[in-house]
Every structure is written in structure tokens, then in C-alpha cells.
Automatic annotation (TrEMBL):
Name assigned to this protein: MIF4G-like type 2 domain-containing protein
Biased composition annotated in UniProt, kind: Basic and acidic residues: 241-252
Gene3D superfamilies, sorted: 1.25.40.180
Gene Ontology molecular-function annotations: mRNA binding; RNA cap binding
GO annotation, biological process: mRNA export from nucleus; nuclear-transcribed mRNA catabolic process, nonsense-mediated decay
UniProt xrefs under Pfam families: MIF4G_like_2 (PF09090)
Domain MIF4G-like type: 1-223
Length: 265
């Protein structure tokens, strides 16, 4: 049955109290429990878990907006629960992104930046996992698609366009900066694990370099689109049916004008 918030709030309060007793972050701890529970309740199918997120999105939004660590924990909880089926995890992450429970930058930081102890970088090993690459690619594509939509829409105002373009550039910059550290071997987590001479470290550097080339190209493509859109190259052309409708209207107006006695004089 669908229980109201009032029924499980005492459980969350108990988790907060126990976390505080153990010097843990109460919000992060309760977020882990809650997100894992959502995944478990919805584990019957992808549609079930998406429905669970729909019902609990308000609480998840509150948790996600509380701190970067809480957002990172949401991602970790989903990825850990669905570790055997990463494709499902990515679909859930996308849903959370659509609801603004997560942000594109929080996903990039969790996967590549690792500025928060709760992360999925795995000391750089994530660079060798295809679903991690897909996670970042999907996130970047969603942001760039939004920019393209605004640039080709005649109804979008310039302020909104400029804001989204700036955000897209910030996202690609964050991706590049994080990858540059892995590619050069200067990432703190990588330096702490060795002296740079091991096969594992060399592999991580190579993966970092490959990822960096890919996303630098993607960023260049999107920058080219922005420049060309400003010249009007990607302006949306009227649909054929709209043209036909306009032509029919014009013909009707002309016929009315010609039938007007005043025009005949």
C-alpha cells in the first residue's frame, strides 16, 4: 500500500538520531536508506521504480537540494543497488535528472571529479567501464540538446539561450578539467595509490586521455553549432503544411480583395 509521509517520518527521525550518535551525516545516511528502499520497492520492473520516484520526488528533491554529499549519495545508492544491471541504473539516474533531483554537474563530479568522498570514480577504474562513459555522455547530450532546442526555437528569448549556453560550457569545462587530472596522472586519488609506474596507473591515464579527446570533440561540435546558429544556419524552416496554409490564406485574401467593388474601381 502507499503510505503517507507521516507514517515513515518517525523511521527517518530514528535514522537521523542513530547516524548522529555514530558521527555520521544524518541527511546522507537517511538519503541512502530512503533511495535504496525506493529501488527495492520498485525492483519488480523499471516502470515500477519510476512510479516510486514519481510518488517520492518531493522528498528526494528536498534531500538532493540539501547538500552535494546527499546528491552524491543518491547516485551511489542507485548505482550500488542496480550494479548487476547498470542499464536500469542509468535510466533511473536520467529520471532523477529530469526531475532536477540531481544536476548534470553532480553526476560529472560523482563519476569523474571525486571531490566528495561519496563517489563512483573508484580511483580512476570507472574510466574503463562502458556504463560510466554512457552516464557522462547521456548527461552531456541532454544539456547540449537543450541548447540546440533553444537556439533553433523562434520562441526562445536571448537571455535563456545565453544562460543555457553558459551552463553547457561550464559542464564541458568541468568534464575536461576532471579528465585532464586523470589523463596526466595528477589526480589526488591516483597519486595516493602509487608512484605512477604501475600498469594500473598507466591504464587509467590512457583511458583518461581517450575520454578527454572524445569530450573535447563533443564540446567543439557544440561550439560550432552555437556559432552557426547565430548566423541563422540552423533556423527552423516553416513546415510544408504551414506554408500551404499560408498560401491558401493569401489566395483567399486576394480573392476577397478582387471581389471588392472598391478595388475594381
Amino acid at each position: 500500500r502507499k503510505a503517507p509521509d507521516e507514517e515513515f517520518q518517525p523511521i527517518m527521525d530514528s535514522i537521523h538520531a542513530r547516524a548522529a550518535e555514530q558521527a555520521l551525516d544524518p541527511i546522507v545516511t537517511s538519503t541512502d536508506v530512503f533511495m535504496t528502499a525506493v529501488c527495492w520497492v520498485g525492483s519488480k520492473s523499471l516502470s515500477h521504480v519510476l512510479a516510486c520516484i514519481d510518488r517520492t520526488k518531493t522528498r528526494l528533491m528536498d534531500a538532493g537540494s540539501s547538500s552535494p554529499a546527499a546528491r552524491a549519495q543518491i547516485i551511489s545508492s542507485v548505482m550500488n543497488y542496480w550494479s548487476a544491471h547498470p542499464g536500469i541504473a542509468l535510466s533511473i539516474i536520467e529520471k532523477l535528472l529530469n526531475y532536477s533531483i540531481l544536476t548534470p554537474l553532480s553526476i560529472v563530479d560523482w563519476t569523474l571529479g571525486a571531490t566528495i568522498p561519496i563517489n563512483g570514480a573508484q580511483g580512476g577504474a570507472a574510466l574503463g567501464q562502458s556504463h560510466m562513459f554512457e552516464l557522462i555522455t547521456n548527461t552531456a547530450t541532454k544539456v547540449s540538446a537543450r541548447v540546440r532546442q533553444l537556439l533553433t526555437s523562434p520562441d526562445a528569448d536571448q537571455e535563456t539561450r545565453d544562460k543555457e549556453i553558459a551552463f553547457m560550457r561550464d559542464l564541458f569545462r568541468a568534464i575536461n578539467d576532471a579528465l585532464a587530472s586523470w589523463a596526466s596522472g595528477s589526480k589526488d586519488q591516483l597519486m595516493e595509490d602509487g608512484d605512477g609506474s604501475s600498469d594500473r596507473e598507466a591504464m587509467i591515464r590512457r583511458w583518461g586521455q581517450r575520454w578527454q579527446r572524445v569530450f573535447q570533440r563533443l564540446a567543439a561540435i557544440e561550439e560550432t553549432f552555437v556559432v552557426e546558429a547565430k548566423t541563422g544556419r540552423w533556423a527552423v524552416l516553416p513546415k510544408a503544411e504551414d506554408v500551404d496554409s499560408e498560401q491558401a490564406k493569401q489566395a483567399k485574401d486576394n480573392a476577397v480583395a478582387l471581389s471588392d467593388p472598391a478595388m475594381q474601381d
